[in-house]
Write a structure and sequence with these properties.
The protein has 96 residues and is of the alpha+beta class. It has two domains: 3-43, no CATH class; 49-84. 41% of the residues lie in helices and 23% in strands. It is built from one helix and six strands. The longest helix is centred in the middle third of the chain and has 39 residues, at 45-83. It is elongated and about 70 Å long.
Length: 96
């Protein structure tokens, strides 16, 4: 995929900025929004239709994984503190 810079004159189509998630739809040839530090890639409509459900599926799968990781980390830390006899109100960094 070719990269386009914000403010560049381009032909009509859909241009996606992966850094900001911004989709620029140009109905006719014109300039892309943004400045020279923003990059866009031209996106095919069929590809967008295919990628949207896949991105949703990925989110649905990874959200529970992130929840389990956060839960395990929290309770693992609490268990470690309990095993080391730290109890409540003390930090691992301030143990003497």
């Amino acid at each position: 995929m070719k990269r386009y810079i914000g403010g560049e004159f381009v032909e009509k189509g859909k241009y996606y900025n992966f850094a900001t998630g911004r989709l620029a739809e140009l109905g006719a040839a014109g300039k892309l929004p943004g400045g020279p530090n923003e990059t866009y890639r031209k996106v095919n409509s069929v590809m967008m239709i295919i990628m949207a459900p896949l991105a949703t599926l990925l989110f649905i799968i990874l959200l529970p994984v992130a929840y389990v990781a956060a839960f395990t980390t929290l309770w693992g830390y609490k268990l470690l503190r309990l095993m080391l006899g730290m109890g409540h109100g003390h930090s691992l960094a301030h143990r003497h």
